From TrEMBL:
<dbReference type="GO" id="GO:0006310">
    <property type="term" value="P:DNA recombination"/>
</dbReference>
<dbReference type="GO" id="GO:0003677">
    <property type="term" value="F:DNA binding"/>
</dbReference>
<protein>
    <recommendedName>
        <fullName>Integrase</fullName>
    </recommendedName>
</protein>
<dbReference type="InterPro" id="IPR013762">
    <property type="entry name" value="Integrase-like_cat_sf"/>
</dbReference>
<dbReference type="GO" id="GO:0015074">
    <property type="term" value="P:DNA integration"/>
</dbReference>
Length: 678
């Protein structure tokens, strides 16, 4: 009787599945010529016995994806080249067993379909086990069936991630039949429970901190500078690219006499730019410079949308749209989620600001030049969201030598999957990373007072900030709020537009959020909209603690006096309890020109007056600080002095000024009464 198993893979809708596994005819392992991956046209991409499985056909964006079984190698960067050494008998056996285990996972694992990241997690465990098996001159079956050997192997695991991956793989294999699936009995029944306990005993993973405000502002400034510098010379740069492309047809041995890149830089006015950016005056350097600016554009998009790296990397060429209204233009980026739904790509949208739109525009200019070299034009079609990526790979220029493999049967172009921490971007990384000072550490301590920041080697005073792209997401969610948490003027200016857009489109009740984000609960959980909403009470609580609870100056106004009296009594404020009150909606706070407001919900006092002067008279939610009130009075006095005394505007503004002065008088009287009693 035939027993057919289909691959349980999370792959695009139009992908061609690998072979079905007829267990009855093959036994415990498929044959060596068993097709494990196919191109969309049905051509085999890899077979079971291949040392490298080509998973690129199953990537929705055509990115190079490989499953590598050369467990004895530390890196797999040259998968396109044939192996230079023959494998020993033991090594060949371990590779074959590893491939069989991967086939078991793909075809017989219970539960949800497997993504590429899930496969690589499992393969990383099997590679470690392969190294252990070769060192001890045993096979996989010997290792997996021996509780003593498995325990010895697991004792070498020193990270929570490694232990978790091994435990997950054990759980999957333990659910299989020892006779019909594995062919032997696992020796990990007791060890599995031990590993699970080890995972729970590991310290909690440290959450990625938001950037301190000065660091955040400096990084945004550096990104803007990089974009501006390239914008000035972009036409010259892309003209140089076109010129170099025309010279590629010259044989490499004869090219040097025709291709003096240094002279060409001078002709195109690019010598100074290359020198300042540390770009080598070679064809490879020209390509690297474009990769740099693509990385800058991607980081800027992340900074002004809150996208994850993968979401930004998968943006299509035609992602930007704009909605013009009187006096303002709203920008949106359309892309896709990182998850599939029954093999189909799910689309989503993000709001951005003019800064994000500018980065997309520059990235499109670079991409257009690369597509021109390829001989293609990025067409916009609703059904083909991913064929033309915004960040198309610069390797198509072939300035660093011809691509050693071409994904000719893929339905999408490759992306330039650049990571700022990788060696090719060392010069760019130096320009983007500010030096940490003591004020930055104090801010981190305010964000998480229970973390020993002074003992963390990644956050030492005097060293460069360890910039990671995912920091932009948490920083934007926390600081792009109207809580008043951001006191640094430069950062307030940099975030004012995106703060307005996120407040308009991501707030609860927003039609945009309902139609494009909240319609699917799974998508909403992954979207920056949820992070932004979750961060709102956190941002308010942090601003409240800094501006009210730990304020150095006395507080006035009804709510201010109430808080001041608690401080005078020495009442201790519990940070965790305060945060929970904000998260439950029992307390609220936002900064105002006069101090702050603690009203939960919308204010009914301000009316049409921008300064909220009516709040100064009898509002129970107002917190007044004399320092801020005095500053507002000075500014209002200058405004009143500049107006014509016979105008209606003069009388309105003069009334506001008088209200401020009267409020200051009341505050001073209260302060004097307090000092008399003291």
């Amino acid at each position: 009787m035939s027993r057919m198993f289909q691959a349980k893979l999370d792959i695009p809708e139009n992908a061609a599945l690998p072979d079905e596994w007829d267990v009855a005819s093959t036994g415990l392992a498929p044959p060596d010529d068993f097709v494990v991956s196919r191109y969309a046209n049905g051509v085999a991409a890899s077979t079971l016995a291949d040392i490298y499985w080509n998973w690129t056909p199953y990537d929705p964006d055509g990115r190079p994806r490989w499953l590598c079984f050369d467990y004895w190698q530390k890196t797999t960067s040259r998968i396109d080249r044939p192996m230079r050494q023959r494998m020993s008998g033991l090594r060949s056996r371990i590779v074959a067993e590893t491939q069989r285990f991967m086939a078991l996972l793909i075809y017989k694992k219970r539960g949800a379909s497997l993504s590429f990241s899930s496969l690589t997690d499992s393969l990383s465990v099997l590679r470690l086990m392969g190294q252990y098996s070769e060192k001890h001159e045993i096979g996989f079956e010997d290792l997996w069936s021996s509780s003593a050997l498995l325990e010895d192997f697991c004792s070498s695991l020193d990270t929570k991630t490694a232990v978790s991956k091994v435990a997950r793989l054990m759980g999957v294999l333990m659910a299989m039949n020892p006779e019909t699936d594995l062919g032997f009995t696992l020796g990990c029944a007791e060890l599995f429970a031990t590993l699970q306990k080890r995972v729970s005993d590991f310290p909690a993973n440290r959450q990625t901190p938001p950037m301190p405000t000065r660091i955040y502002s400096s990084v945004l400034t550096a990104l803007n500078t990089e974009l501006s510098d390239f914008d000035v010379i972009s036409d010259c740069y892309l003209a140089l690219v076109a010129r170099l492309v025309a010279l590629r047809s010259i044989p490499r041995g004869d090219r040097k006499s025709f291709c003096d890149v240094g002279s060409m830089l001078a002709e195109h006015g690019l010598t100074e730019y290359f020198r300042e950016k540390g770009i080598t005056p070679t064809m490879h350097g020209v390509s690297s410079g474009l990769s740099d600016i693509q990385t800058v554009c991607r980081l800027t998009v992340q900074a002004y949308t809150g996208m994850r790296h993968s979401e930004a990397q998968m943006l299509p060429y035609h992602c930007l749209s704009a909605e013009k209204r009187p006096g303002v233009t709203h920008y949106f980026l359309g892309g896709r989620t990182t998850k599939f739904e029954n093999g189909r790509i799910r689309r989503t949208q993000w709001v951005t600001s003019k800064e994000g739109a500018r980065a997309v525009d520059i990235a499109r200019r670079v991409a257009a030049a690369i597509y021109e070299v390829i001989g293609d034009t990025p067409h916009q079609a609703d059904e083909r969201i991913s064929r033309y990526p915004l960040f198309v790979a610069t390797s198509y220029l072939e300035f660093a030598g011809r691509q050693t493999y071409q994904v000719v049967t893929q339905d999408a172009y490759l992306t330039s999957d650049s990571r700022l921490a990788s060696p090719p971007f060392a010069q760019l990384s130096k320009r983007l990373r500010p030096i940490i000072n003591e004020g930055d550490i104090r801010e981190l301590e305010e964000i998480d007072p229970h973390r020993a920041w002074g003992d963390d080697p990644d956050y030492g005073v005097g060293q460069a900030w360890s910039l990671r792209s995912h920091q932009f997401r948490r920083s934007l969610a926390l600081y792009a709020q109207r809580s008043g948490l951001v006191s640094l003027p430069s950062l307030r200016r940099q975030l004012q537009h995106i703060t307005r857009e996120m407040s308009l489109y991501y707030s609860k009740g927003s039609v945009f959020a309902k139609n494009f984000i909240e319609d699917d609960p799974r998508d909403y959980k992954e979207h920056i909209c949820k992070d932004w909403r979750d961060a709102k009470p956190v941002s308010e609580a942090m601003a409240f603690l800094r501006d009210i609870v730990f304020a150095d100056e006395p507080l006035f106004g009804a709510a201010g006096i109430f808080e001041q009296q608690k401080k005078n009594r020495g009442q201790i404020v519990d940070r965790a309890i305060t945060l929970k009150q904000f998260q439950k909606g029992l307390t609220a706070y936002k900064a105002t020109p006069f101090g702050g407001c603690v009203k939960v919900g919308e204010c009914d006092k301000t009316g049409l007056r921008m300064m909220g002067v009516l709040c100064l008279q009898d509002c129970k939610n107002i917190v007044i600080k004399l320092s801020k009130l005095n500053r507002a009075i000075d500014q209002q006095q200058h405004l009143v002095n500049s107006l014509e005394q016979s105008s209606i505007t003069y009388h309105l503004e003069k009334d506001d000024l008088d209200s401020m002065i009267a409020a200051r008088k009341r505050c001073l009287e209260i302060a004097n009464r307090g000092s008399d009693r003291g």
